Amino acid sequence: GNRAAICTDNVTDVSSKDDPSDPSQFVNTVDSFLCQSTIIPGDGRGFRVAISSQSISLADTFLGATVDTVLNGVNAKPDLFPENPKDIPDINFFYRSTQATASCDQGRSSVITVRCNPDESDRGQLSVPSSCPAGTCDGCTFHFLWESASACPRCSEADYHLIEGACRGGVQESLYLWNEPKLCTKGVALPPRSAAPCEVIAVWLKVGLGVGAFVAVLLVSLTFYFWKKNKRLEYKYSRLVMSANKECELPAADSCGLAEGEEAEDDVVYTQKPTLLGKLRAIANKHEDGESSESVQLNSSQANRWPNETHSELLSCLLQVILVVFSHGSRLHLLC
């Protein structure tokens, strides 16, 4: 709320330098946030000092400060100034003067754009748009750019980083440096250089090496174990395959063909059949069970198989057959 800008008209003071009356009654002074005076150089006009006149107020009321470009109908027009190359946004201070004029029926307004520039001093430097040297392009809205280190944020712990040196002689040095580019002022100070005892190999590194060595030994052991087990299984499998091949070998098949001059043998029998005496006994047993008749087929092949039997055996068999016929009253058919 302190209006520090003061503009004074000294035209009457200069023109009445020979007047013995009090010249302060003719002095016009303007106190405001922002004021303007027209300066007339004194050289070549016979005046000892420069003449200031037409002092006017450009900012009677402070509207607010924001990073936005528009506030209460006042436009900051940032394109009138060079683009801000830094990441810190500009802050616009908006002012208004309610004194209406012929060209500005709503009064005058002013915008001061404050920009962070660590290379400038705290007071900084004020500039006007290059396209409008008088500070205004329409006579009603005035624009100013104020670059200053005071517009930068205050420094905090996030604005510097730690650099740890190598461990030498059991001592490790730590150095703090500002982040580049440095875009802060005042605030916290940079911590001093420090030193602390250290070990050539850190504890966590020792633990990591131990765990890594244990895992490596474990993996090698497991690999060797499974390799040995696989070799044993492979040996057992090969033995099993060899034994299976031996059991599955079939004997060589006898040739069914006949050599030259060899005659085929008649009636080759591969199955064992009961003798004639056994068949007759079976017939007798069936007749005892009540059957009326039985038929017995005698193959010539069987007759040929008995060339060595004695006549007595044949006669005994025939007698048994006759006895069976007469005892049961049925017929026995001999099929030859």
From TrEMBL:
Question: Which PROSITE patterns does this chain map to?
Answer: MRH (PS51914)
Q: Which residues form a coiled coil?
A: none
Q: Which InterPro entries match?
A: Elapor1/2, Elapor1/2_C, Elapor1/2_MRH, Man6P_isomerase_rcpt-bd_dom_sf, MRH_dom
Checking Pfam families in the record gives: ELAPOR1_C, MRH_ELAPOR1_9th
Instruction: Tell me the Gene3D superfamilies matching this sequence.
Output: Mannose-6-phosphate receptor binding domain (2.70.130.10)
Domain (MRH): residue spans on this chain: 1-154
> What membrane topology term does the record carry?
Single-pass type I membrane protein
Q: Which residues cross the membrane?
A: 203-227
Among its keywords, does the record have Membrane? yes
What are the subcellular locations of this protein?
Answer: Cell membrane
The question of whether Transmembrane is a record keyword is answered with: yes
For this UniProt record, give its keywords in alphabetical order, as a comma-separated list.
Cell membrane, Disulfide bond, Glycoprotein, Membrane, Signal, Transmembrane, Transmembrane helix
Q: Which family does it belong to?
A: Belongs to the ELAPOR family.
This chain belongs to the protein called: MRH domain-containing protein
Give the source species.
Answer: Xenotaenia resolanae
